[in-house]
């Protein structure tokens, strides 16, 4: 898995992603929620994976400007035919490295409570679910996260200090 | 105009804004494009104006993490009944100050070419329209900005060094 090719995102990556993104999410209109600005202004914490010249995965994140210890993962997508191949893990680990390199020890992100595979993935990646007043189907959920009644599962992960080969 | 009360945005501002935002924009579904994350992680460059305890305007912006000299204004809204009262100007000027205080000398933002009042406002605020290959109705437009064929007018403003009362 270590040879999965990964590089920083660039503005030119945006349009090829956005035109396939809803298909990657079973037709859900998620592409409206992913702005080009992340591919322009948050390149140091955003990454893409290409295979045979074709973009098959990406992660968009940033360093919190309110909380100097935190980094945030905003959006992650992997081509449906290339899932379970370690691409998501590779993207997250690369982001964790970027966060550590910028002095961050906490990573946050969120997902929908109906997205059970996303919840399982985040738990495997070492995230914890933040406690909430409401628990639905055993999962703590933040109610009315967005003003339109939508529930969200909020994750947090403490980054361990990086292990160096020598010190 | 100097006594327009302005403060940093906070997460609790998000829901009251988002439920009225489409109405503020003549019913256009703009609220889908404004994420809560800006009210959490970019508070130092995001501002709200309240009058009589009611939120009547806001600006959401951030410091570019790719370009260390740049700041970006992502979204601005003013209550329809409170326009032409200097609230937009106050929000922009407060953002310019925050950008300068963080070592930024360039501010960027964009708007839709159909939004003539927004274009006029940005020109009054000292922005220039970035040149593009395509000019529509006399306005340079960036074609297919978002992968779905949408055109955008891109603005840039160089901040002048701040004048101090004494030095």
Summarize the structure in short:
By secondary structure, the first copy, chain A, is α+β, with helices and mostly antiparallel strands. The first copy, chain A, has four helices and nine strands, in the order βααβββαβαββββ. In chain A, 31% of the residues are buried.
Describe this structure in words.
Two copies of one chain form a homodimer. The first copy, chain A, is an alpha+beta fold. Helices cover 24% and strands 28% of the residues of chain A. Chain A has helices at 14-24, 37-41, 87-101, 116-124, and strands at 6-8, 47-51, 54-63, 70-78, 106-111, 128-129, 134-136, 139-141, 153-158. A seven-stranded mixed beta sheet of chain A has the order 1-2-3-4-5-9-6, with helices on both faces. The first copy, chain A, has a two-stranded antiparallel ribbon with strand order 7-8. Chain A is globular. In chain A, 31% of the residues are buried. The A-B interface holds A 14-19, 31-33, 35-37, 40-45, 62-67, 70, 72, 74, 144-148 and B 14-19, 31-33, 35-37, 40-45, 62-67, 70, 72, 74, 144-148.
What is the total tally of β strands of chain A? 9
Classify the helix fraction of chain A into a percent range.
10-25%
Largest sheet of chain A: 7 strands, mixed
Beta-strand content of chain A: 25-35%
Oligomeric state of shown chains: homodimer
Largest interface: A-B, 32 and 32 residues
Q: Determine the number of helices of chain A (DSSP H or I, runs of at least 4 residues).
A: 4
Strand order of the largest sheet of chain A: 1-2-3-4-5-9-6
Mean pLDDT of chain A: 92
Low-confidence stretches of chain A: none
- The shape of chain A, in one word, is globular
Distance between the termini of chain A: 26 Å
How do the SSEs of chain A run, as a string of H and E?
A: EHHEEEHEHEEEE
**Helix-strand category of chain A:** alpha+beta
Radius of gyration of chain A, whole Å: 16 Å
């Amino acid at each position: 898995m270590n040879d999965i090719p990964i590089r920083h995102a660039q503005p030119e990556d945006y349009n090829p992603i956005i035109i396939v993104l809803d298909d990657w999410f079973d037709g859900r209109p998620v592409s409206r929620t992913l702005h080009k600005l992340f591919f322009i202004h948050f390149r140091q914490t955003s990454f893409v994976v290409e295979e045979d010249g074709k973009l098959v995965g990406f992660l968009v994140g940033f360093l919190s400007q309110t909380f100097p210890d935190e980094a945030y993962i905003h959006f992650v997508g992997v081509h449906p035919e290339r899932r379970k191949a370690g691409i998501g893990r590779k993207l997250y680990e690369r982001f964790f490295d970027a966060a550590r390199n910028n002095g961050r020890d906490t990573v946050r992100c969120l997902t929908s409570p109906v997205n059970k595979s996303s919840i399982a993935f985040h738990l495997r990646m070492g995230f914890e679910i933040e406690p909430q007043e409401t628990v639905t189907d055993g999962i703590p959920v933040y109610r009315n996260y967005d003003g339109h009644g939508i529930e969200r599962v909020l994750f947090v992960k403490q980054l361990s200090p990086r292990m160096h080969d020598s010190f």
